[in-house]
């Protein structure tokens, strides 16, 4: 079922008709129950990586608390029988103001990982933002999507050649925009992962965009060729053996040959050395602009002065984001930052919101406050973990369906009718 106008009624009818035969939705239809079900099913490592936040996770809470400070004021006796949930974004008409945000290492939650998400996105017409830290190469996920819209996330590597290569591959894969993630120039302090001693990338997970890249493969071969002989290693543990096998699986080619080769381990070491560049500044954006014809959106903007500077540098859009609360503890909530960024931009480029969005009602509030669209994250990942492609598709349809019904039940028939006037701050 394609997401869009009338999705709410169609989704309700589908659920209630199936209920006559004793069938219930594969995954819970509200985020709190969805997250609880995921906690019961996912491994501790998977749950820690997906659900965890920076420090004491106050920013994760702040992202949600920001939504609780707004209430919708419905209007009545308006003809809302025909509704249009679509929006135009960067020249493309989308069925709803929603995208599937980039989430790395999805193989932790489901064996089909990004491929299952791609198929669900294509079925619903909702764009998918390919993760820079994907478990499946972008060419494979793009092929599964046909003509459906997709974007690419970029982590700015210390290797300019690798950045250029990633951008060229994104263009060739039919991506329509690049989301430059600026809030993760280094990993935040994430106690859930730290307490488990777990970094998926160190185990060869979530690095498929790299191991499939010709520039990265060249860098790995150079590193392996120049590596100094290793000191005698301690007796291997079962965990170390499993890690070695995981690295070998991540590198293209025969598992047996990879287990004998230095390349898989060199790939992980190369990734950890170059994946992100803390030294990037505003002056580097001109170089990035020259590498691609695709629109560039900066993700992680929370301050209006940064928004204004971004416009001066000629970017094509902004994403207000706290990285899901995973980078800076005690940060301002993304929705709290949104109005000031929207005001600074003054409708010159689209502003999107990421972080804290869990439902169609959240989507309604964010759009009313000026977001052109929102990126969904943890919710669809939980759906993936619980029911694979079908779980992702249901989560998307549930969020868009609730948005459609909220639009109509508050007296509106189109997204462009929403503004701060339809809300009250608590």
What does this structure look like?
- By secondary structure, the chain is of the alpha/beta class.
- It is 47% helix and 10% strand.
- Strands 4-11-10-9-8-7-6-5 form an eight-stranded parallel β-sheet. Strands 1-12 form a two-stranded antiparallel ribbon.
- Helix 1 packs across helix 18, helix 2 packs antiparallel against helix 18 and helix 5 packs parallel to helix 6.
- The longest helix is centred in the last third of the chain and has 32 residues.
- 52% of the residues are buried.
- The mean pLDDT is 95.
Low-confidence stretches: none
Strand percent estimate: 5-15%
Order of helices and strands: HHHHEEEEHEHEHEHHHHHHHEHEHEHEHE
Mean pLDDT: 95
Total number of distinct structural domains: 2
Query: CATH first level of the largest domain: which class?
Result: Alpha Beta
Q: Could you tell me the number of beta strands?
A: 12
Q: Which CATH architecture of the largest domain? A: Alpha-Beta Barrel
Task: Assign the structural class, choosing from mainly alpha, mainly beta, alpha/beta, alpha+beta, or little secondary structure.
Answer: alpha/beta
Estimate percent helicity.
40-55%
CATH superfamily of the largest domain: Aldolase class I
Topology at a glance:
Elements: H1 7-20, H2 31-41, H3 44-51, H4 58-68, E1 70-72, E2 87-89, E3 92-94, E4 98-100, H5 113-124, E5 128-130, H6 138-145, E6 150-154, H7 160-172, E7 178-181, H8 191-196, H9 208-211, H10 214-226, H11 238-250, H12 255-260, H13 263-274, H14 285-291, E8 296-299, H15 304-312, E9 317-320, H16 334-345, E10 351-354, H17 360-368, E11 373-376, H18 378-409, E12 423-425
